[in-house]
User: Which sequence fits this backbone?
């Protein structure tokens, strides 16, 4: 944890995020509100609704910028890294907040992307990780990632995260540099976890299947909310392609629990509901471009 220096942040501060099942969406809303209370002009944008070119135009006019995503196996979702690669190089360096949401431990959080940020003109001044309710309710991972389905049991976690966000907002407004878990041990542990995850979820294959309870075109929600349009309807129901980013959105929001991971049974979901966001107000359509369309400059 490092604290130092002035960042001259005063003015607009757009935030761009990706969220699969609502955790990063919720944190982004909390950061937005906290920074607004500090006097900054802040708005949060889903990267599913905002092109990299549109984002760059907003960042060029801003005093600073925030970038957030959920951590998957100490790695960033491919949809986020692909979006970041397409972000035009900025004319001037911008003080940048990088934040991630996680279930247990992410190693370095977003710090492993620092070099990519720097190449784009994003000066990573603040980085923070937020532990959120676990959205991995897959039967195969029941022992590794204990899943709690009762929202009332998340209340304490969310209250703690609100306090963390207020502290972060005060650091940003006070121009205090803060980098969480940006040390050698954290980097090493993240590297150990990131390699196997990338190998297991290598693009070019799918680990998903559907059963006869799929409603097909009568429903089709999974095709509409998939962030990379990786699901199509064929005879017999939904079919996953080979571009999955494993955001868990289709699995958690399927109304009949017809989607299976590695062929495992979903019987457990009959006793414990799937994870559908940290608050009842969340629904994927809020951040999905196919409902709202791309943001205009």
Assistant:
């Amino acid at each position: 944890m490092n604290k130092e220096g002035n960042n001259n942040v005063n003015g607009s501060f757009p935030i761009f995020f990706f969220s699969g099942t609502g955790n990063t969406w919720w944190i982004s809303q909390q950061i937005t509100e906290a920074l607004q209370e500090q006097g900054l002009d802040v708005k949060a944008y889903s990267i599913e609704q905002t092109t990299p070119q549109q984002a760059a135009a907003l960042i060029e006019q801003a005093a600073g910028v925030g970038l957030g995503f959920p951590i998957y196996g100490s790695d960033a979702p491919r949809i986020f890294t692909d979006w970041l690669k397409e972000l035009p190089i900025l004319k001037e360096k911008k003080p940048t907040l990088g934040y991630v949401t996680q279930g247990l431990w992410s190693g370095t959080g977003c710090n492993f992307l620092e070099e990519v940020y720097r190449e784009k003109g994003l000066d990573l001044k603040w980085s923070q990780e937020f532990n959120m309710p676990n959205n991995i309710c897959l039967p195969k991972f029941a022992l590794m990632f204990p899943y709690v389905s009762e929202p009332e049991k998340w209340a304490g976690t969310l209250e703690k995260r609100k306090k963390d966000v207020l502290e972060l907002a005060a650091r940003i407004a006070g121009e205090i540099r803060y980098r969480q878990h940006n040390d050698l041990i954290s980097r090493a542990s993240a590297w150990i976890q990131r390699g196997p995850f990338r190998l297991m979820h290598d693009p070019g294959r799918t680990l998903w299947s559907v059963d006869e309870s799929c409603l097909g075109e009568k429903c089709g929600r999974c095709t509409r909310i998939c962030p990379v349009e990786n699901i199509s309807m064929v005879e017999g129901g939904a079919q996953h392609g080979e571009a999955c980013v494993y955001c868990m959105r289709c699995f958690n929001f399927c109304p009949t629990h017809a989607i299976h991971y590695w062929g495992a049974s979903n019987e457990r979901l009959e006793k414990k509901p799937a994870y559908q966001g940290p608050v009842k107000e969340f629904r994927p359509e809020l951040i999905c471009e196919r409902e709202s369309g791309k943001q205009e400059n």
Notes: Strands lie at 15-17, 44-46, 65-70, 94-102, 122-131, 178-179, 208-210, 231-234, 237-240, 259-261.
